[in-house]
Design goal:
The chain is globular. Helix 4 links the parallel strand 4 and strand 5. Strands 1-2-3-4-5-7-6 form a 7-stranded mixed beta sheet, with helices on both faces. About 35% of the residues lie in helices and about 30% in strands. By secondary structure, the protein is α+β, with helices and mostly antiparallel strands. The protein is built from 5 helices and 7 strands. The chain has one domain: 3-Layer(aba) Sandwich (Aminopeptidase). Helix 1 crosses helix 3.
Length: about 160
């Protein structure tokens, strides 16, 4: 099958939410408190998806393989605090099913997301324990800025690609 990237449309909401819940669980189980892992149910993710779907400053794209959503990227035109990166957009979420890792889908989503938000300068936070994602972002040209923040689930690292 050929993977293609497209803007999130209502037909994809439930599949995107299922991927969000599943990848959240796969990544975080055993790394953060279980009650936080358990909070991102498919229903919770669907509610978030619907609430953000119509905001043009928050583009969401999905990766589709054989009629199934296998990943997604969410961006923000303006980064949230405490990020202080004038002129950058925020790569807020990037998740790809583990079964589809290593196929270039993450790269496709980041590149298409950058175009969708209209900004090649991206900043993001990545969980300190997520060495796989940190390596991916470094291969994509991002670098660690030295800034960290503590969240409910531990330390996060700021990375930028400019």
């Amino acid at each position: 099958m050929t993977v293609h990237i497209e803007p999130l449309a209502p037909d994809w909401y439930e599949q995107k939410a299922a991927v969000q819940s599943r990848t959240w669980r796969e990544l975080n189980e055993g790394n953060i408190p279980q009650e936080i892992v358990d909070a991102i149910t498919p229903e919770f993710a669907l509610d978030l998806t619907r609430r953000h779907a119509d905001d043009p400053s928050q583009p969401t794209l999905v990766a589709v393989d054989g009629g199934r959503v296998v990943g997604f990227v969410e961006l923000l035109a303006t980064p949230r605090e405490p990020m202080d990166r004038p002129g950058a957009a925020e790569l807020a979420s990037l998740y790809v099913l583990a079964s589809h890792h290593g196929r270039g889908i993450g790269r496709m989503l980041v590149e298409a997301g950058s175009k969708a938000v209209g900004n090649e300068r991206l900043a993001l936070w990545v969980a300190g324990f997520n060495e796989h994602a940190q390596g991916f972002y470094r291969r994509m040209g991002f670098r660690f800025t030295g800034l960290t923040q503590d969240e409910d689930f531990g330390r996060s690292l700021e990375m930028i690609n400019y």
